[in-house]
Task: structure prediction
Amino acid sequence: MGNPVIDVRNLTKDYGKGRGVFDVSFRVESGEVFGFLGSNGAGKTVTMRHLMGFIRPQKGTASVLGLDCFNQRAQIQGHLGYLPGEIAIADDMTGIAFLTFMAKMKGIRNLDYMHQLIERFQLDPKPKIRKMSKGTKQKVGLVCAFMGKPQVLLLDEPTSGLDPLMQSLFIQLVLEHRQMGATVFLSSHIFEEVERTCDRVAFIREGRLAAIRSMDEVRASRTHSYQVTFADSQQLQLFADKAHQGIAIEPATEHQGSRTLLVSADGSVDSLVKELANYSVESLLSRAQSLEEMFMGFYGKEGSER
Amino acid sequence: MSTTLFLKELKGSLFSSGVIAAVLALYIVCIVYMFDPEIAESLDLIIATMPELCAAFGMANATDTLLGFLLNYLYGFVFTWLPLLMIMILVNRMVVRPIDRGSMAYLLASPTSRLSLALTFALTLATMLAALMAVIVALQVACAEAFFPGDLDVEGLLQASAGLYCLWLFLGGLCFLSACAFKDARLALWAGGGLCLALFLVQMVAGVGEGIEVLQTFNPVELYDPYALAAGEDDAVGNSGILGVSGIALMAAGTAIFCRRDMNV
Result:
């Protein structure tokens, strides 16, 4: 691969009490959509602040387009679109005044694309930003990030506050910009938004990178669990007593008199459905693995590799 | 320097500065209107009865000229405390609050260097102060011409005003430096603003008390002496120069810190 667009090496910033980031390294290649997943306080925003040149690393380096994030921030920003995690816009401005101001600051002369985006997000930019709802503010932030058709996009929790329709629009927008050749780095604590956009994903936990995986790998390794309710406990017992290939019964759920069982199937649901067809089943619920559970999986694996 | 940001900050500063200017205008009109050599005599009598109180507010100099009257009742107190309030409001609006609330992130997300951001803020502050100065000088001259044509020593007024502007720059420099240097928003606003207030308070106390004149020696705001400035005394002019240069140096120090510090926005 050529030169990475985003290159973070051994990045360390210790805020004390375990907060901050520790020895974080990753590279994002040109044209890639890279997800940065972690729970709140895991170090996503701190990493983002380094990439934006707001703060200086204690150790290690962070560079974008081959330029140092802190010392050459102004140069980088000419090619970068940014969406902050918390929308705090100079509060006495209207949406449109803010966007035009930012376009001027960024040196964007042609405002056609900005207006297109406003229309697509169905954003009414006339009210004061202070009076806008969280979702509307988020739209203003998104228009601001995308309007310059930047080479690099840094998006901190981009879909927070957006309704499902706007979330899909956002995903479409990310994919369009990837088509245009943009490199996207987005952080999130919601797996779904990452799943639908990203090529690769990094998991961060307590300030340390737990794993970097391609989206395909993540999908494949994500186990699916299902809550099966049988017609009666006898049926359950029959099912539980027999060994099934690729199907694991979660031990804690199996007890006398119960009709409900938690099972997990690796890979597809196909084998489970076919197997269950032999029994009398009242209901079958799919239960998505939580981000935390997925982390634990990765963290455990990575931990044992070290 | 970013022209776009400069214009936005100027526009954003207009309202609060306008309010301060309006209050000052009210004082100016009242004080000029009150001037009357005979009333001045009775006011002198008040000063003679309560010299300490008047001294505390920088109004201790008995006078019978219109310029002396203005210097006594405006240049000692009203024209120093209210502009300090304006400086604190502007610095809070441009630097302290945006860093605290995170909206500085947007300015840092533009291809503008931190140096030019900080210089733009400092220049906005200096420009608003200059505009305020222009307004109050013009208003004093206009009122004086309206009520007492030909009575005002305009040259003296301009000299005192130039010195006052240097004092404002110094106060602005302190507040700007503190805004750039401290992470905690309250400290960022009040370390500088509070220090300025403390210097003024010390000046008030030192003007009243006997035997504590030593307090005047190390207080930079004592370098501003409107009467000596109006009289064109070289020392006073030099002292004002020191204030002005210190103010610019403080702003430069603030700028340097702004360029290097972490901003958790």
